[in-house]
Structure formats: structure tokens, C-alpha cells
Amino acid sequence: MLRFFEKIVSKQNTGGILRLIMACSFLVFLSVGCAALQDRKNVQTERLLSAAGFQMKLADTPEKMANLKSFSQRTLTPQERNGKLYYVYADKSCGCLYVGTEEAYQRYQRLAEQMQVARENREAAQMNRDASMDWDMWGPWGPWW
Q1: What is the 3-state secondary structure (H, E, C) of 34-53?
Q2: What is the bridge-based pairing of β-strands 84-91 and 96-101?
Q3: Closest C-alpha among 85, 98, 93 to residue 54
Q4: Under 8 Å CB-to-CB from 68, ≥6 apart: which residues?
Q5: What CA dihedral angle connects 38, 44, 50 and 51, to 10 degrees?
Q6: Rounded CA gap, 45 and 88, in Å?
Q7: 19: helix, strand or coil
Q8: How far, in Å, CA of 110 to CA of 112, rounded?
């Protein structure tokens, strides 16, 4: 591995350095973008859980944080406690646990479905608007047209 980097850094291979820098920059950009999209999705899920009636409980002690890490992360998991069914959503990045009853889970499912339908309607409206636009009447849009 060290020889690989020595070869790239040698004076005869300055183009290799540029390619390595560009590749590393691309990978960093890609990973940051994916993380941002995932964070946005998690925030949306947690908002839906709250709106559905799930209660957020903070892991405010080391023992609670250790227990929180033992749960499946960022997935709704059924848990039975004292003969009653609950649904749990653990997120160690915020140090919180969302707990809801069967009724709250059903509300969450309805809200999530409504959000999906709204998203699909918005996308369909955008596609219809784009299809109805007469782009040709505007002429060329730049040197690449």
C-alpha cells in the first residue's frame, strides 16, 4: 500500500495525484450527501411518530444509553410489556427512544400512507406541469443546445 502512494506522489506522476484528490473528494461528497438524505428521512420519521402519539424518552443516563444501543436502530419493533403490545423506535444518534401503543402505531401507518400519497400526487402534478410546458417556444437555452 505504501508503494502505491509513493508512486502516486512521485514527481513523474503529477496527474495521478490530481486523480487521487478528485476521487477522494468525490467519495467524501457522495458520503456526505447520502448521510444528509438519511438524516432527513430519520427526522421525517420521528416527526410522524410524534404526530401519531408516540412518546419520546431520552436516554439521559449511561445505563439507558447502553440499553438504547441494544435495540434495532431506526426501525419500528414490536415489544410486549406487561401483556400489552408496544412499538419501539430507537435512535442512538439523538439518544432517544420512541414508544407507542398499537393505536399510535396504526395512526403512524395512516400518516405515513397519507404522506406517500401526497408525495406521489405532488410528483404527478410536477410531471403534468412539465409535460404541458411548451419549452420549444423559448428557443435555445445556451451554448449546449
Answers
A1: HHHHHHHHHHHHHHHHHHHC
A2: antiparallel
A3: 98
A4: 59, 90, 92, 95, 96, 97
A5: -160
A6: 13
A7: helix
A8: 5
Cα angle 103-106-111, degrees, rounded to a multiple of 5: 125
CA distance 93 to 44: 15
Q: In what order do the strands lie in the sheet with 96-101?
A: 55-58, 96-101, 84-91, 76-81
Task: Find all residues with CB under 8 Å of 80, minimum gap 6, and list them.
Answer: 86
Beta strands in 26-136 (DSSP E): 55-58, 76-81, 84-91, 96-101
Q: What amino acid is encoded at 47 in this protein?
A: R
Work out the angle at residue 113's Cα, subtended by the Cα atoms of residues 107 and 119, and round it to the nearest 5 degrees.
135
pTM over cut 0.90? no
- Residues 65-124 pLDDT 10s: 999 999 999 999 999 999 999 999 999 999 999 999 999 999 999 999 999 999 999 998
| Cell digits of residue 84 | 400489552
DSSP 8-state assignment for residue 57:
E
Could you identify the residue written with the cell 397519507?
A: 114
